[in-house]
User: Which sequence fits this backbone?
């Protein structure tokens, strides 16, 4: 890009021509940005689009290789319908839902209480603990799945969906606590001090002041906890082998692939149905979703 | 954050005639400011009297409550993160049947195997290339997005974030199908323009490329969002004064944007490095390490050795190899985050 204006040019009154070229250049930059973004959106949406197309095809149409694979010629919802009626698939869905709800509830309870305490009450070592929370957030699941396998084995919770309830909070709690600390710390102290002087207890301060005021943060944290436990893959992959205990992420693969038979239409239909809850939440609560995303590095 | 805190302090500053403290640009106040509040409105003697009796009792009670509220979190960190971490180290020192100590035997055994050396190489290649691609594309996207009028940004941001929203294990299934050896839709396109078909997942180098591609596709939106948020926090007047000084676009980028964003860039890159390095879903679903164990990364190799082959100690040893990188990256992330929150004050 060339220089937009020389220092001396700023002092001159802007004559129409100069102003015009600048504006034209800006407009070109704008259209260029739109075009480039459109290309990226196109590339980013290829896989979901193709999944959708495949899920609407019959097995016959998929295996017949003469037509354009990117389009569907005889759309049908048969794949979806069969899956909805499938006992196993219903099981996976129910398992995913119940484990996710429990994990979200447990994680949010733990992290809201802890964040309130760490942001406001302070006690000996609370600063260290806050740092520790952040560090545990950085420990990936693929480092801990082997010791957890042994631990769950000892508790005889292998092949049990409820075993995941023990482990999943480790995924959500550190991050949720971390962003809730940020949100709570930004609440002015006058609010809770006024309440305390009026005779409120700490629990009342938490429930009547902090939770309502920091609701956006709580929603963001809840969304995070939900997406993490809904999409978790390595733990159920390692600990669940019986199909009545499986959750969606592993159930789709193990149930719809029998030896060498890949029911691609159904796999894609199942995947899309499994992806639907997070996508729907995202569609409605995008701002909270993004707030939760960016909060990680900016602390609140 | 969407909600802001007004500077209510000025209203009842009382006897303490301190100059109004600066409010942070994002609307939050610093700690000192929050501390001088109600207590600051009382005369000194009164505070002194309160401190001897009720305050001390209050704080004692307060810290007990605080500790009790933190207890679940402390239990979780110690019981479900720290203990398993140490347990993993213990496990990695045992023999396959877990009957006796073999010291560092598992680690030396791993290093003698060429498969494992390939895993190390492959993990580093995967993480570094993918993170680099994500950072560059994400940065470009954030800049393009920053050009748009803010009312239009919402829609585009919404569309571009879709890869990040779909659970990775599920979208990877879609990619797997796109790379399918006999029905690959990419090959159909290649045939259409007269290029030879590609064995996407059947040939090691192509499989590596596919893994990196999927990871880049998935992670780029995250980078974009982080950079976009950071770009918005750079004050506009810096660019204006640079323009008056005759800076061109590249100079603005080099001397304003990059220095202002340096911290957030390093935090995002390091964070993504950890996540990418420890990735499991993509490799497990796309290739499961194949062809001939040439595309394993730490997590999938640990899974294969530990869970599938039943050699728990060996699997633990493999996954522990991630620890040094994690430690270094975490150290720098933590430093960056604390520096950033200090900067913001």
Assistant:
């Amino acid at each position: 890009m060339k220089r937009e204006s020389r220092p001396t040019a700023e002092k001159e009154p802007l004559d129409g021509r100069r102003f015009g070229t600048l504006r034209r250049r800006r407009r070109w930059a704008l259209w260029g940005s739109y075009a480039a973004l459109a290309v990226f959106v196109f590339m980013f949406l290829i896989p979901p689009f193709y999944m959708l197309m495949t899920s609407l095809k019959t097995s016959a149409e998929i295996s017949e290789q003469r037509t354009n694979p990117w389009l569907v010629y005889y759309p049908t919802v048969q794949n979806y319908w069969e899956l909805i009626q499938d006992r196993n698939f219903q099981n996976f869905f129910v398992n995913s839902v119940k484990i996710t709800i429990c994990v979200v509830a447990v994680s949010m309870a733990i992290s809201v209480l802890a964040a309130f305490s760490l942001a406001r009450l302070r006690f000996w070592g609370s600063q260290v603990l806050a740092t520790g929370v952040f560090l545990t957030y950085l420990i990936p699941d693929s480092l801990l799945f082997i010791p957890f396998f042994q631990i769950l084995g000892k508790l005889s919770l292998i092949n049990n969906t409820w075993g995941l309830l023990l482990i999943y909070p480790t995924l959500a709690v550190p991050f949720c606590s971390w962003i809730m600390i940020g949100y709570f710390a930004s609440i002015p102290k006058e609010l809770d001090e006024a309440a305390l002087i009026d005779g409120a207890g700490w629990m009342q301060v938490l429930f009547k002041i902090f939770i309502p005021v920091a609701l956006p943060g709580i929603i963001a944290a809840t969304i995070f906890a939900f997406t993490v436990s809904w999409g978790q893959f390595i733990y159920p992959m390692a600990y669940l082998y019986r199909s009545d205990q499986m959750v969606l992420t592993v159930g789709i693969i193990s149930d719809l692939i029998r030896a060498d038979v890949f029911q691609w239409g159904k796999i894609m239909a199942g995947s899309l149905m499994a992806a639907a809850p997070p996508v729907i939440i995202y569609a409605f609560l995008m701002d909270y979703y993004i707030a939760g995303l960016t909060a990680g590095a900016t602390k609140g | 954050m969407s909600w802001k805190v007004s500077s209510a302090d000025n209203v009842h500053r009382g006897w303490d005639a301190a100059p109004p403290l600066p409010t942070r640009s994002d609307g939050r106040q610093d700690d000192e400011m929050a501390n001088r509040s109600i207590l600051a409105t009382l005369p000194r003697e009164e505070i002194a009297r309160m401190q001897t009796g009720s305050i001390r009792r209050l704080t004692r009670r307060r810290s007990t409550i605080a500790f009790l509220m933190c207890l679940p979190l402390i239990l979780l960190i110690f019981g479900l993160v720290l203990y398993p971490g140490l347990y993993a180290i213990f496990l990695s020192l045992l023999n396959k049947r877990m009957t006796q100590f073999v010291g560092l035997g598992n680690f030396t055994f791993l290093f003698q195997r060429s498969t494992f050396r390939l895993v190390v190489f492959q993990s580093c290649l995967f993480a570094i290339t993918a993170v680099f691609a994500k950072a560059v594309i994400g940065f470009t996207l954030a800049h393009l997005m920053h050009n748009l009028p803010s009312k239009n940004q919402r829609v585009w941001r919404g569309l571009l974030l879709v890869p990040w929203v779909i659970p990775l294990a599920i979208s990877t299934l879609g990619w797997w199908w796109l790379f399918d050896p006999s029905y690959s839709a990419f090959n159909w396109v290649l045939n259409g323009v007269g290029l030879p078909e590609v064995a996407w997942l059947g040939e090691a180098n192509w499989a590596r490329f596919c893994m990196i591609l999927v990871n880049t596709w998935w992670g780029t939106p995250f980078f974009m969002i982080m950079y976009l948020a950071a770009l918005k926090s750079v004050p506009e007047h810096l660019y204006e004064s640079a323009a008056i000084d005759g800076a061109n676009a590249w100079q603005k980028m080099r001397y304003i944007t990059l220095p202002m964003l340096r911290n957030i860039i390093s935090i995002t890159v390091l964070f993504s490095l950890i996540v990418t390095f420890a990735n499991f879903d993509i490799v497990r679903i796309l290739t499961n390490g194949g062809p001939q164990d040439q595309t394993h990364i730490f997590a999938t190799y640990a899974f294969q050795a530990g869970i599938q082959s039943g050699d728990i100690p060996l699997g633990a040893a493999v996954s522990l190899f991630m620890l040094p990188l994690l430690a270094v990256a975490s150290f720098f992330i933590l430093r960056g985050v604390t520096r950033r929150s200090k900067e913001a004050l």
Remarks:
- Residues 7-44 of chain A form one domain.
